[in-house]
From TrEMBL:
Its EC number is 2.7.4.3. Pfam families: ADK (PF00406). Monomer. This is adenylate kinase. CDD domains: ADK. Keywords: Kinase, Nucleotide-binding, Transferase. Belongs to the adenylate kinase family. The keyword Nucleotide-binding applies. It catalyses: AMP + ATP = 2 ADP. One of its GO terms (molecular function) is AMP kinase activity. It comes from the Eukaryota. It is an enzyme of class 2 (transferase). It comes from Genlisea aurea.
Amino acid sequence: RNVHWIFLGSPGVGKGTYASRLSTLLGVPHISTGDLVRQELTSTGPLATQLREIVDHGKLVSDEIIVNLLSKRLEAGEAKGESGFILDGFPRTVKQAEILDEVFDIDLVVNLRLPEKALIEKCLGRRACSECGKNFNVASVDIKGHSGSPDIKMAPLLPPPQCVSKLVTRADDTEAIIRERLRIYDEKTQPLEEFYRLQGKLLVFDLPGGIPESWPKLLEALNLNAAAADVEKQSAAA
């Protein structure tokens, strides 16, 4: 399907996970600008050198560089016959959204939300295997609802036995840094949400829990239940 979708969401909300699942379901690429930056850092050339200097000094990567990386990725995908995309991590500001609007007609912007307490617990629970590189989460989130809001339960994503002794935590996954990251995200993203709300393209989706609880309801909100059922039938037939 030739969809042009954007996934928004605070750090730790899991937008990459859901965007990736929808990418597989719809047969369109899931493009994370964070991944594009990391890939470029492993290459050689003037842009990689410029990026390393920015990252090493803790500065923000400019809109110009992000748009450059994104354009390169989309052109390469088009040459391979890719159709559409699901963007994750871009845009983050109204200025970036305006730049994107000059190039693409965005169909839908999905804003995933979780309470701040759940986001902090999830970020603090993030682990990666230093050997295989896979990501896990040791947090067991169990937050009681209040003022009419539902309880939120999210099971941990535990590593297999061979990874347990090799788990590492990101140096910046401390509560103080996570809270500051969330504050900055909210500050920058609220105008962006309003930008897309005024265009009639914003879908706000409050995650009811982990993947088992949230995935079916997200499919329902996106009117994709039939598409998911077709894929399941094809898989069963195969």
